[in-house]
Amino acid sequence: MSVRTSGITVATDSGPAGGAGRGPSPATGPDAYGSGLDPDDLPDGLVVSDETGRVVCFNAAAARITGIAAEDALGRPLETALPLQDVEGRRWWRLTDPYGGLAIRRGQPERNLLLGGREVLVSARYVRSRPTGPVQRLVIALRGTEARRRTELSHAELIATVAHELRSPLTSVKGFTATLLQKWERFTDDQKRLMLETVDADANRVTRLIAELLDISRIDSGRLEVRRQRVDMIAAVRRHVQAQTTAGQQPDRFLIRMREPLPDLWADPDKVDQVLGNLLENAVRHGEGTVTIEVGPAMDATSTEGTSVTVSDEGPGIPEESMSRVFTRFWRGSKRGGTGLGLYIVKGIVEAHGGTITVGRAPAGGAQFRFSLPVATPAFLA
Questions:
Q1: Cα–Cα distance, 295 to 149 (Å, whole number)
Q2: Is the Cβ–Cβ distance between 145 and 56 less than 8 Å?
Q3: Cβ distance 296 to 258 under 8 Å?
Q4: Distances in Å between the alpha carbon of 110 and those of 107, 140, 145, 304?
Q5: 121-157, pLDDT tens digit by residue?
Q6: 140, 123 in Cβ contact below 8 A?
Q7: DSSP 8-state secondary structure symbol assigned to residue 370
């Protein structure tokens, strides 16, 4: 029998122990399933064994993931060609017994197994000629653990960041409330007000962090809802600049430039406020000099009409080597605090509107963020 895999044709002995041959297996070759698909085109590892348990297909991804050459696996019994073990060291194929076990089983869900010191994600499908008949083919999918490890590392980093960011305000809240409860009569009204204002500010910080986590969850799952209403972008920018000056920034630090007329913009006003607030806060916190906000009409490559907003500062800017990571989780432009989640959320919000956001260097040398939102249609007409 000839099996084409890994770009070569390998002749194998199809008998159970070198005995009488069988007809060609339907699981081999690029046209095995009438789809014209070569097993080597698959991104995941594919291993197929026939009704006797001998390997008849071992694609290039399987060879890469397992470190086993295709020619060393083809034609051999599955148990010796792919000697998998569970985390307790038990031989996987003897433990699951796909050919001699329960006739009602359809396969094995994906799980982490060991192969000669490597960790491999393995799932299997039992192909039977009838629901409770003997196994005609065993189709095994293999995946490396790198992607899962990156996901687990990202989740662990998120948990560590959240725990760190929550601990400080909650410790403050607990300390002040406990002190007030125990020694209320000893404090003046001004002292009580100061402590309650601190508790209120820390509670707001916790609320913002929880809101960020919810946004990340919705962005990652594709469930971020956009409730479109008419948005006056210039008024929104002015409102955020006013908020910054009310918080103590000098009014002459901000410069608003407008290019009118602007098209009618239908977007989620709360999320637009979130984007503007984050970009302005970053420019104030991490940048220097004048913060310039430019608002004007935008036209993208597909001739879609919209509104663009550019926020730039005169600080040191973002190094070229870091620009590709600006919108990823946990990226921080400096050591001045923050969770490193804001720009990741900003990008998710802009893209949920069908818009784009870019980062570059401002004419004065600082950082420059530019986002564009399409005109779109109101929620009640969508």
A1: 42
A2: no
A3: yes
A4: 10, 10, 12, 44
A5: 999 999 998 888 999 999 999 998 777 777 777 777 7
A6: yes
A7: E
How big is the chain, counted in residues?
Answer: 382
The pair of structure tokens assigned to 212 is 């960020």
Which amino acid is it at 359? Answer: V
* Six token digits for residue 102: 């329960």
- What is the mean pLDDT of each successive set of 10 residues along the chain, which is 382 residues long? 40 38 40 65 93 95 92 94 90 91 89 88 92 93 81 74 81 92 92 93 87 85 87 94 91 92 91 94 90 87 78 90 83 62 91 93 91 81 58
Give the tokens for residue 165.
């960011």
**367 φ/ψ angles, rounded to the nearest 5 degrees:** -85, 145
Distance, CA of 75 to chain centre: 40
Two structure tokens written together for 139: 């189709």
In this structure, the strands spanning 291-299 and 305-312 are antiparallel
Question: How far is it, in rounded angstroms, from Cα 10 to Cα 298?
Answer: 59
Measured between its terminal Cα atoms, the distance across the chain in Å is 59
Strands 291-299 and 254-258: parallel
**Residue 171 tokens, joined:** 């410790």
Which sign, positive or negative, has the C-alpha torsion 104, 109, 113, 118? positive
